[in-house]
Structure formats: C-alpha cells, structure tokens
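My main concern about presentation is that the manuscript never shows what a single data entry looks like. An entry of this sort, consisting of the sequence and the corresponding backbone structure tokens, reads as follows:
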Amino acid sequence: MQDLSIGFVPLLDSAIVLAAEAKGFFVEEGLNVRLTRETSWSAIRDRLAVGSLQAAHVLAPMPIAANLGLFPLSPKLVAPIALGLGGNAVTVSAALGAAMEAEGDESDLDPARAGAALKRVIAARKTQGLPPLRFGVVYVFSGHNLELRYWLAANGIDPDRDIEIVVLPPPFMPDAIEAGRIDGYCAGEPWNTIAARRGAARIVTVKAKIWRSSPEKVLALPADFAVQNEETVAALLRSLYRASAWSARPENHGELAAILSEPHHLNVDAAVLQPLLSGTVAISETADRAVEDFFLTSAKAATFPWQSHALWFYSQLVRWGLCDHSAANAAIAKMSYRPDIYRKALQPLHTPLPGASLKVEGALKVPTPVGASAGGLILGPDGFFDGQIFDPDQVGAYIAQQRAAI
C-alpha cells in the first residue's frame, strides 16, 4: 500500500475526496490515504509548499497562481483532475438583501437582476455618503474572487472602486455576516446555506448561473511528485473518478450527506447538506430554490481538467492586475491543468473521455453529444450569464475587451 497525505477544507465540493476514503475506493486502488482537514486555503498552500501533503483539494485557480509564482513559496503544481462543477454562491446580509429587493431583485437567483439591484443600492449609498459595502472572498486566487468580480463588472459595478473585498476562510463567513463585519460574500457551500437558514443572510445568485458548468475545486499535486510517482497518481485519479460516479447517484445522497456531516469532515448537519447534493438551495430562513446543475460530481465530464477553464481563470488574473499577460504566462496557465495525465490514468476504466482538451466556453446552449473515447458523453449547456464567449485561442483579445469594459 502506498501512503499518501491529502488535505481538504470542509466544503461540499470535498465530497469526492471524502467519499473515496469512506467507501474504500482508495484502498481498492492500493492507496493508504490520510486525510488532513484544514480551515483555510493558506494552510493548504503552505502544507503543499513544504511537502507535508502529497495532494490537496484546492481552489481551481491555485495551481495556476502557484506556477506563475504569485504567492510566497509557490510550489510547482499540476491539476490532473477536477473535483466537480459548480457549488458556490453569492450571499448578502438580510439588510442588504432587503435593500436589493426594494430595488428590483426578485429572489430568483438571476445574476443580471440581482446585479442591477445591487448597483442601484450602491449608487444610493454613495448619494447618502455611506461607506462602500464590504464583501468577503475565501482567497485572492480563488474562483470566488474572480467570479464575484466578473458578476459585479458585468453589471456595471467596479469591484475595486465601488465595494471593498476582504479575505476570510469559508467556515468563518456565516459568523462574519451575522456579526455585521461583512455585507456579503462569495463562498462554497454549505457556508451560504448556513447563514441563510440562520436568517442572517440571503443567497442572491449562484455560480451555476454566473458561469454554468465551471470547476470550483481541483486536486493539486506537486509537479515533481506527479512525475516520480506516475502509477500512484494514476491509482489516485481512478479512486476519485469512481467516487465521483458513486457520489452522483441520487440513491447515495443520503449516505454521502452523512459522510460529509461527520465531525472530522464538515461537521455540519446532514439535513443541511443533502438538499444541496440534488440542487436544492436554501436562499433564506424559509425559502428554497431548485438550481439546475448546481453541483455536479460526474455528469458533463465534471472531473475532466479542461485547459480552457485554466485559461479563463488566467484571463481574470490578468484582468484584475494579479499578473501580466504574455504568451509564456498563458502557456504556464494552460499546462497547469493536465488532461493527458487524466486520460492515461482512466484508460483501464473504459469510460468516455473527451477527445479535446480545450473548448469554447459559452458555445453550448443545449445538452450536446461530443467526441469522446467512448459513446455517451454529453456536455452543456455552459457559459456566462451575460452571453459572453471565451475562445481559448483568443485570450489576448478577450482580456483587452474586458479591460476596456471596466
């Protein structure tokens, strides 16, 4: 048995990793995995950097930022598998939610309607001389920061001038908004639902409506470890892939919620978690909304590490001044995600594998059969709420167009 230490942060999208351990998929692939629970992404970052973890559940942009040298002790990382699609939300305080409703938000999670209402609230606050609203994100190099900014900018709100953005670990978000320290946040579940059910906050939109069929977390490994332990990494990916398929079956959601709820995992009531696994989101103390494709672990190639996803995250890092654009940096971002490792590892499972490594984001308006190593692979719909298209072959033009917008 090969020993491995894998880190995770208590979030719904750690489900595949936790299910692989609980259901014995790691052991069946010859792996003796020790899971390490961390509260913050900076702790995961540092443990990967010093070698105390061989792999970790990480934010989708983290391997890209690491390989671009954007944070201290940046280790070289590879992301050979995604850990699902969707799973985060934008939550605002009860007071801000009421103000947005007065300005036209209809509590239907529509990103354009909610954004327009928020813009009017911000304009009114400026007129009254009130301080900027403060929003929390879980890490600078997170999909939450980049997608929150995308949503705001697409609605005419400058995230650097019109609001303040601060960083907090995801489990701290409900207490922070209840205490009035922040006015809103973007974080993974269940930390939005918990604040909503307390009556302290309201969910106003979700990732699945801002950028549908996009990754929230990936598994990252040190690049040198992946090269030196090819068979171990392949066994790890097969374990996670099998766990993703098990997690996707509705008949397993009750058991999966119980696994996630354990004190050494998320330590959250299973009754809070189970509805989220089937796409029912608690948007307030009493109201729920069904969200299509809210959190996918297997369908629509949910674990495939699309290099077009990596390049979109890169485009936003450049857009917001976190790194410079160059052909060399774009190549580094693209190669942070490794579909080649994914395909090689999963060949023995004879599962449908996408034939391409990049796709145009926003091109699929309906579920569409696509070329794959075996039949039965369907992708889409995907894309952005504002109708924009991201062509990974036109990264420079995309960045220039977005910078000109805000």
